[in-house]
Amino acid sequence: MGRLERWRRVARAGPNVGDVLRAALFRVRGRAEPPAPSTGPAPSLTRLDALIDEFAAGQLVRWRVGGQPRPLPAAVDAAAYRIIQEALTDARRHAPGSAVAVRLRYDPAGLTVEVRGDGPAIPAAGLRARAQSVGGAVHAGPCPEGGWLVRAELPAPEDEADPA
Q: Which of 84, 103, 116, 158 has the most crowded Cβ, counting Cβ within 10 A?
């Protein structure tokens, strides 16, 4: 696979992944040029079905929503989407072809995101940083019955939601 094809695959992985890599390359090369802004849609749970469809090619991914879905603060919405995206990416990388289940649960205090899969546990450092950026927490590791679980608890009180 050529360099251009690898870059295209990275760009398809997420709207901001290419921007992050471009910025890192500029820093490594000692350049001060800022990366070009992303032109893709903003990460949002409103696009979750498209994200799941993207990962479902070659991997069984099921998802469900519990509680009453509602608008979330933009930062929490984006963090939840990115946590799911990163967990699915790690599942594909570390346990290709294994089944994955995504669950969202809305409650008055916020949103709980769970991504569970067969196969070995996935790294969670980047997931923790995303959750902490909005005042949340991530717990990740192997499940006693086998497989792995990533659980993110993101605060989003009903009265603080962004208007729809």
A: 84
